[in-house]
Structures are given as C-alpha cells and as structure tokens.
Amino acid sequence: MSRTIRRHGRLSRRSVLIAASAASLGWAAGPARSAAVASASPNQVRIGFQKSAVNLVVLKQQGALEKRFADSKVQWVEFPAGPQLLEALSVGGLEFGLTGDSPPVFAQAAGRELLYVGAEPPKPLSSAVLVPAASPLRTLADLRGKRIALQKGSSSHYLLLRAVARAGLQWSDIAPMYLPPSDARAAFEKGAVDAWVVWDPYYAATELDIKPRVLATGAGLSSNNSFYLASKPFVERHPGAVQALLDELTRADAYVQSNRKEAAQLIADFSGLSLATVHLFISRRPPSPVAPLSPALVADQQRVADAFEQQGLIPRRIKVADIVWSPQRARLEAKAA
C-alpha cells in the first residue's frame, strides 16, 4: 500500500526508563524551589505527537519551538496512537503530548502521573465506523456479532462504545479486535474484520485509497475531543513553558486557517501522506486554537470516563477534574512560594 501511513519511531524501553529515572531525580527537590527557578526554561522538552496532531506537526516543520525554547533541547517522538504516547509520558519519556479523549481516561484509571493542560475544540466528523463498500451492514444495529477493529484505549474505543449503545446493543454483543491502525487497515482490506473504527488521517487515507462505506461518524455520538497532556513534574516546575506551548499551538492553528495550501504541504512533506489525503482530513477539522480546559470540556470528558467505568472497561471510577491543570491556581501558588 503506497499510501499506508508509515510506522512511528519508537522509544526503547531502556531509554524510557533512563528518562523516567532522570525525571524523578530532577523532581525530588521541585516543591522547595522558588517561583523564579520554577519559571526558568526547561533543560529539555520532549514532545509526543501523531500524524493527526496538525498544530504540533506545523510547529515541528517550522522549527518554532526550537526558537521559542532556545535554551532547551526540543525532541520530537512520533506515535501511532494515544495509548502508546501516554505510556511514554507517564514513565518520564516525554514532557508533553496530544491524544484523543480515551487514552487519558485509561491512564488516569491506571494511576499514571499526568495532567490535562490544554484542549482543542471538538472534531466529531474526524472519526468514523467504516465497513467495506460491499458490506451487508447498513445500520449500527447490524454490528451485532461482528468483528470490529479498533485501537484499544483510543478515541475510536469510545466512539464504538457510543455506537453500540445507540444501536441498543451491549458491548458483549460485538467482537472487538484490538489492533493498532496499520494492522487494523491490513485486516480491514483482507476482510479479516467486518468493520473498523478509526480517526483521521487514517480515516481520510483509507477513504481515498479503498473507498469504504461510512456507517457512522462521531456526529451525535462522540465529540472526539483532543487534549494536550504533560507530565506532572514538568507542569509544576515550568508552568510558564506550558503556557508558551499553548500559545505557540494557537499560533500554529492560525497559520493553518490562513494558509491552507502551505500548511497542507508541510504536513504532507512530514507524513508521506498524499496532498489529497491531507486536504481531506484538514477539511473535517474546525479552527483549533488551544486553551486550558473549560468546565464544559471537563464535564464532557467525565462522561467519557463514566461510560468506560460503567462497562467495566476501566478498573475504577475516576474524577477527571483531579488531574486538570489550572493556570490561575499555578500563578497563585507561584506567588505564594
């Protein structure tokens, strides 16, 4: 498949564990530091991203963060999906990254040390339940007993959960096949699964390459929110750097909105995706400035968490608000330090 999305560069387990040890040692004296030290530039900013992370990809291609954090070592690590990214972040292999709605829920339920620091507006049209063009499946209720490919713990997991509920089915009525996107596409093309739940740009690439039928999008089912998360030590030590990252991401989005052709070329050059694929998935993406989480977004994310807990897919109930960063609170704590 000439347009199949390339595999990501993985962090070795050794490098992740070394990074985790370094992060923990560096944080040991963190709470006692002064506000002046806490606002200093970080030594490094390791950023986890996916091909769907338009704002981050633009910043990477422009070298914007290397300029903004001139005294820091900026590193970029690509992942195929959010669960893998948050695993690296939670063990100290990253400082910052972007995922969909479900990965942070699973991470928090597992007791991972991370914080929500920013969010983009909803993108419900950017994910879908796909079936082959000739499939007899016509409604969500037809998913009963069917093999459905999805990345476990990803935004597609929540979309399928909502789709199953909307059809009046139970989770036990379907046969989920937990596969990363590249393996899921291969299974979908071979007919080894009956349906595939996926997000852009995998959705857009598949749509153009093999012309599947869309059984449902996230519209009316899932907001498909995108969240920026950071390691707790990084946020506590460098709140100014976190705000700078959000500011740069918003600037990148303004560039995308004003320079669609140039932005699409930047993304295509990085990803290896065709320009047609990039234009298609960007067309489904609304303006996406980045800001700290609003109460409405926290409430929406709590509904995601509750849905997984009610189905027994996470081990305990969690409170999303417990790991949401507040810039105002951070400023007050800095003044009091």
Structure description:
By secondary structure, this protein is an alpha/beta fold. It has 2 domains: 13-123 and 225-336, Periplasmic binding protein-like II (D-Maltodextrin-Binding Protein, domain 2); 124-217, D-Maltodextrin-Binding Protein, domain 2 (3-Layer(aba) Sandwich). Helix content is 46%, strand content 15%. It has helices spanning 13-27, 35-38, 54-62, 64-68, 82-90, 102-109, 155-166, 181-190, 202-210, 232-237, 239-258, 260-271, 275-283, 295-310, 327-336, and strands spanning 44-49, 73-78, 96-99, 114-120, 127-131, 147-150, 175-178, 195-199, 213-217, 226-231. It has a 5-stranded mixed β-sheet with strand order 2-1-3-10-4, sandwiched between helices. It has a 5-stranded mixed β-sheet with strand order 7-6-8-5-9, with helices on both faces. The longest helix is centred in the last third of the chain and has 20 residues, at 239-258. It is globular. The N and C termini lie far apart (56 Å).
